[in-house]
TrEMBL record, chains A, B:
Keywords: Hydrolase. This is NUDIX hydrolase. It comes from the Bacteria. CDD domains: NUDIX_NadM_like. It comes from Fibrisoma montanum. The lineage of its organism: Bacteria, Pseudomonadati, Bacteroidota, Cytophagia, Cytophagales. PANTHER family: ADP-RIBOSE PYROPHOSPHATASE, SLR1690 PROTEIN.
Length: 243, 243
DNA sequence: ACAAAAGTGTTAAACATACACCCATGA
DNA sequence: TCATGGGTGTATGTTTAACACTTTTGT
């Protein structure tokens, strides 16, 4: 589990559903790399996934949307639940205690944030160029990290990222269009789209086969050419068309 | 959400995680039909999915296993989370109030069971011939109902069943072997296996293509012939071999 | 012998894969 | 004019689908 605006939450967690949290793996795609948003907690060197709690009269998915908007400034985000992390052993109160101390709080032993949490895992796909990462009240920074070079993460957050990635891989073919439309800018080249695929699947694909397959889906519209200044043929730029 | 052994749970729900429940869609396959287990509540005519709560020091998935074992008598069940139902509007305290009254309980307005619950949906696949359905403390019966002829269900349980079925359809190809091994008896005919497929996908498949595809997976072992007394060639009986 | 269901064979179409080729571009 | 990356064409192999044919069984 993680946290947002904890100033607004008393030591008893009033106003929020007890024992339930959500953690989000927020994916962006930039320079042919998948990246995720991580928070760094003040004076602790601890990294964590953005997370939040559910208000007493708020839908679970709405809470996820609210939290996503707070971290990225975006309101129309593609997001989906992928797993509930509910092992009793997953929660170790120590990291949270240090975080709170580093924020000048002196938590009692049965402080709300130090109890066991079950956490609903969400993955979100955002347009890297549009998101404006914002730290939460307990953290110094909220920034993009290359999936292949993640810092050590709090608790079981590493496992949560792993599971989110697995989910992406399993469902890529089925969700292709929605996902690519969420992760890429409005227009993109075929090479960029292929690179997104390859990054998620972690395998090289054949260039010509990929092109054919994508075009055969009938969801791409060719706009014009993109002159990159490179000494080679200018690639076409594509856009998704409403199905 | 639902309930188990509520006698052991006081009006404050002590010993259990608050606000969190689990509901299970327990699938069995019999006479070429998919069936699920439903509870019927005493004197109320209300039908519901089997459900339960999580003990304070229990893993979420372990709680699901415990509940599954209580309802079916089986301990080695294939089960998986598929969605968290967390809409604020989903919980209507009225049905639960009637159920409690029908059981001679006089719930206070803020009784634990009458508050909002977020519920983790599990689907489970069991061998129909081995399961021994057992009602829980609040219900009269726990029985199999044909998926195509379900009675009206409490709350959003109809939607939960729908979502579970969707999940089955989406993942059938990928999970094929595990699932068929869980749902079918130890030995079965190719026609039975095909019928299971057709029931889950809700579409007819070509007989010969299906046979070829299944055999090409290399996980079926042909045992011997099954003489049904029918005036036709006796089908072979198959068994899954450990991959 | 016949009907009914099971198993196998045959063919054609669809799809994927690999490679080759041509094109445009800037150095 | 060359190297580079992009787009398309072609040959090959694999998978899927549809249908026909044969086999086995009880009546």
């Amino acid at each position: 589990m993680s946290h947002q605006s904890p100033d607004a939450i008393g030591p008893d967690g009033a106003g929020y559903l007890p024992g339930l949290a959500l953690d989000a793996v927020i994916f962006g795609f930039h320079e042919n790399q998948l990246r995720i948003l991580l928070l760094e907690y003040r004076n602790t060197g601890l990294f964590a996934l953005p997370g939040g709690f559910i208000r007493e009269h708020e839908d679970l998915n709405a809470a996820a949307r609210r939290m996503l908007a707070e971290r990225t400034g975006l309101s129309d985000i593609y997001l989906e639940q992928f797993y509930v992390f509910g092992d009793q052993a997953r929660y170790d109160p120590e990291p949270m205690r240090s975080i709170m101390r580093a924020n000048g709080l002196t938590p009692t032993d049965n402080h709300w944030l130090l109890r066991r949490f079950v956490s609903v895992g969400y993955y979100a796909l955002v347009d890297f160029t549009k998101a404006v990462p914002r730290p939460d009240a307990l953290s110094d920074s909220c920034d993009w990290y290359d999936l292949n070079r993640l810092p050590a993460l709090m608790q079981d957050h590493q496992a949560i990222v792993q599971k989110a990635l697995e989910t992406l891989r399993i469902n890529l073919d089925r969700k292709l269009v929605e996902w690519a439309a969420s992760l890429l800018p409005d227009t993109f080249t075929m090479a960029e789209l292929q690179s997104l695929y390859e990054t998620i699947l972690n395998e090289k694909l054949h260039r010509s086969g990929f092109q054919r397959k994508m075009l055969s889906l009938g969801v791409l519209e060719r706009i014009d050419k993109k002159y990159t200044g490179g000494a080679h043929k200018a690639p076409y730029v594509y856009r998704f068309v409403a199905g």
